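User: Can you model how zinc ion sits in this protein?
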Amino acid sequence: MILQRTLGQPISATGVGLHSGERVRLALYPAPADSGIVFRRTDLQPAVDVRAEPSLVNDTRLSSTLVTDAGVRVGTIEHLMSAFAGLGIDNLLVEVTAAEIPIMDGSAAPFIYLLQEAGIADQDKPKRFIRVREPVEVVEGDKWVRLDPHDGFTVELSIEFNHPAFNRAPQKVKIDFADHSYVDEISRARTFGFMHEVEYMKSQGLGLGGNLGNAIVIDDEYVLNPEGLRFPDEFVRHKILDAIGDLYIVGHPLIAAFSGHKSGHAMNNALLRKLLATPSAWEYVSFKDPLDVPSSFHRLPEVR
Ligand SMILES: [Zn+2]
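Assistant: Here's the modeled complex, given as structure tokens:
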């Protein structure tokens, strides 16, 4: 039986909020089977719980932000959600002391390290996957995202920036997780932004925590970070990291082929909402025999 997973023990970290520039404390706790990923704003009195689910993603301007009916926000969840997806973690309570998850180094790697430090524990209920049965697509002008039936998990994304720093590298990447490791090939890819955007955002009181330590920053010609890029195609790899995190807000791993062009958080969320609203397009599946699981999921780390 493939079982649901949580953490072996609680663990915490401190970082900076990308938009507020404030110090944020993040604490992760094991949570019961079938509880999903729940964020808890402990800076509010009383604390407020916000469950990660597609219907609560109500702000996608700069990141994927959960917003409850009462207006309680948890922002920049996509890199943390991506790490949970990469390690196959189903249930977790995430305490956070601000309206956004800390940006860390702009990738999911610090979260992977943290989760692996805490260890991963099997639970007593079967893991539920979502198997896509029919194509689902969202199109807006020349941008699109889609899910197709596939016995595994693949992500194929392309971006289109006519800019010297981007033209030097492939702007299209396909990763088949049957052959490639999320931790090695995706988790380290950092978020990126243009210098003129950074300046504009700061003038609007946003991106106050942003610096060369937590984003790739590009001017009119070059990457400004002295250490350069972690992968030649780090930009599009980060878009894959984001998409994996955005898709995991559905609460289950997808057995599907995901693809997109010039897409982002808003379209990823629209795709999930369309999938859920089309009952014939998907089904829940569990696996009694681990050998029946598509090989894309064999790469999840062993439970220690
Ligand atoms: Zn991102």
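A couple of observations from the model: Residues 184 and 193 are 23 Å apart (CA to CA). DSSP finds seven helices and 19 strands in the chain.
User: Helpful, thanks.
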